[in-house]
Structure formats: structure tokens, C-alpha cells
Amino acid sequence: MDPSRLPHRDLTVAFHTFGCRLNQSESDSLGGGFATAGYTVVDPATTADLCVINTCSVTESAEADTRRLIRKILKKNPNTFLAVTWCYAQVGVDALRKMPGIDLIAGSGHKMLLPALIQNALGKGFGKLSEPLIFHSPKISKDDFTLPTFAVFNHQTRPNVKIQDGCDFFCSFCIIPYTRGRERSRKFDDVLLEVSLWAAQGFQEIVLTGVNLGEYSCEDRGLADLIIALDAVKGLARVRISSIEPTTVSPLLLDYMGNTKLCPHLHLPLQSGSNNILSKMGRRYTREDYITFVNEAMDKVQNLSLGADVMVGFPGEGEEEFFETVSLIELLPFAYLHVFPFSMREGTRLTRMGLQNVPSSIIRQRSQILRDLSKKKKQTFYNAAIGRVFDVLFENNNAVGVPTFYSGYTDNYIRVRVRSSTNLAGQLLPVFIMGVTGDMAVGVLS
Ligand code: SF4
After folding, report:
1. 46: which of 35, 147, 378, 384 is 20 to 30 A away, CA to CA?
2. How far is the CA of 210 from the centre of ligand 1 (A)?
3. Which ligand 1 atom lies nearest to the CA of residue 175?
4. Residues 223/226/231/233 CA torsion (nearest 10 deg)
């Protein structure tokens, strides 16, 4: 970087984001902070003055991906000011500080202050540094929070809005309580303000995100209270919630699904259908609890779309445990599954439990069985929509790749494609579903 270009009015910043929807939402918010400070946010493929890597630490291979990307960026652009932040910066600060070429490392307690931290560093005349500046505290605050900056742009149709961070559940396999700290919630009014800003920009749907979303609680107001408050936001048509722990979904939340702006869509991590494995995972429900909850939700919520994460090859998972998972999935009306082959994460409780690892060839076979099952479930769910009319929110980009086709999602998360000679991007329109091809429903505007 050329220090003669300070102050930073014409500097560019590129974000490289790994991991979950929450990371994406936080990158978007930080992009807003940098834009407000005068930077231009550019595509990550561009050679930028500053690169921010928003890392994931959920598996060791996610950390290896970060290290690979750091080397790749520096090879292409050795002069870029490189900032590494989020989960890997929190738990892997010692490994990162030894990597040449990193200029700034910001752990979880400091990440949302990145524009100011970098501004200060550059304001003192820093170009590339011989040693990284490190902003890191082993302890992460438990206080409720506001976000210092909001996204000012979003390339997606449905912005992710962060409302919660951290987790107190400490499942045996999970590093997140260590990387993101304990549960805390974003201030109620701060959430309302951000959502109102998105709606004023013309976005009709937002997705509420957090690590343990159902634990949202700010001054005695929970997720259901937030849904009611968001119902009053002008211009907003839909609120979707991202993944939510089954034990944290309140009856009130189910009542609101489909009866307010809250979409009838639940992504409920299952992880395993075996009580033996669920207990070793430290999950807070049994197979029977999960089945009861899903049956209640299906009875209560019309057109509910049910998705789940399933982990395959957790240590100690024998044939019997795996087929308990298969039988549970066959039993329940899932619309789709996200299948995750297990990989051990250093620093978690599980590493000390001495359980027998499952060979990787078996994990691959079992994952394939579940992916095939997921395809069948999705087909059944989509087929049930044929002959009916759903409102579809069309994507801002033409995802199908042919100029006259547009695709979007129904409130219950069916992807639908229609042919149109006018631009449908960003519009919420009724569509008659005629059939299903591949992984999409096909319809006509009705
Ligand atoms: S609920 Fe369990 S898996 Fe989910 S973030 Fe918390 S500890 Fe991790």
C-alpha cells in the first residue's frame, strides 16, 4: 500500500467470508462501516488495498482453508493490508501470528470495530507491517449489544440480520461457545432500526440470524416479541428465521408462523436419530422429543417446510445408531437435509471423551445414503405443491442463467422458476406451480 494515498477516501476493501450465514451478515455490516468511513467495497476477486478475511473455525479444514487463502491473496497481491478476524482469529491467534504477511488480527470481541482499528493503524502511517497488530481478549463480553454499523448494500434478495451471538449449550463436538463466547442478544430497537432500513431500501424479506437464535432475549423480550414488532415494519413482507435449536422454539412462535410475516419454515438441527449418540453429543433432546415436537409443529403450521442438519459418523456411531437416524428421517416429513460428515475439532469436550472414531470410508457411504434420502424427501415436498398457487419472491440475480427465466422462493422455501419477458427481480408475485424439474419447481405467473 502506498502511504501517500492516505487519508483513505479512495482505498478499496475486499471481504472474503467463510462459514455460516451469521458470518455473512457480519461481513455485510462491516462493509457498511468501511463504506461510511470512505472506503469502496469491491468484489473479493479484485486486487484491493485492504483484504478482510472473515474466518470460520467450526472444523479444522475450515481453518486450513483460511491459511490457504491467506497465502493465495499474498501471492497475488503482496502489498495488500491483510486483516484476519472472526472465529479462527479468536481460537487460532497463536497460529495466525506466526504466518507472514498478516497485518492485523482481531478476535471476536473486537471484530465489529474493524473499520476504526484499521483506520487508526493506517492513520499512523502504517503500510504493510513486519508484525501483525493484535486485538484479542480471551474473554468475550456477555452483554447485550448494538451493532456499530449496518450494511448499506446487499447483493442478495434477503438480507441476513444478526440478532444474537454466542451459545451456552456446549454440545460436546462444537467449538462455537469458545470462538463466539456466551449467549448475548442484540438490542431490540437496534434490530428494528436495521430491518426498517432494509425495508425502506425495498427489500421485502429479511432472515434473522444468530448462533442460538431461539435464546434471543433482550430486556425480557424474546424472539416471539421481536416477530410481532417486525410485523409492523412498513414495506416488509416476510421474516424468515435461520437455523433454530428444537428445544428453543416456543409454542407462540409456531402460532405466528404463517399468521404474521413469519414464514412457515423451520430449520431444526437434528444431528442424530439415536439417543445413544444424542446423549454423547450433549444435545438437549431425545429422539422421541424431536418426533413429538415435529408432529406438533406440522399440526399447528400449515404448509410448514422442515429442514435439518444431520451429522454423520460421530464417534461411536455404529450401524444400529446410523439406521436409527435413517428411520427417524424416513418417518418425518423433512423437505431437505444438510448432511455434515463428522470431523473432530481440537479444543472441544469430545476430544477428551475417548470414543471410537468411525472410518472415513464409512462416513462417506453413510453421507451418501442420507443425501439420497434428502433428495427423495425434497421431491415429495415439492410434488405436493403442484397445482397450487404460492407467492414467490424473485431473486435479484437471474439464477437460472437464461435471460427469460427467473427463480425465487415461496414462503415455505420451495425454489420456483418461471419464464417471463419482464424483469421480475425483487418482486413478490403469485405463481401457479405446474411441475418439478431437477431441484426446482416450475410455474407460471397467476
Ligand atoms: S447449540 Fe450446540 S451445536 Fe449449536 S452452537 Fe451451541 S454448542 Fe454449537
Report:
1. 147
2. 11
3. 8
4. -140
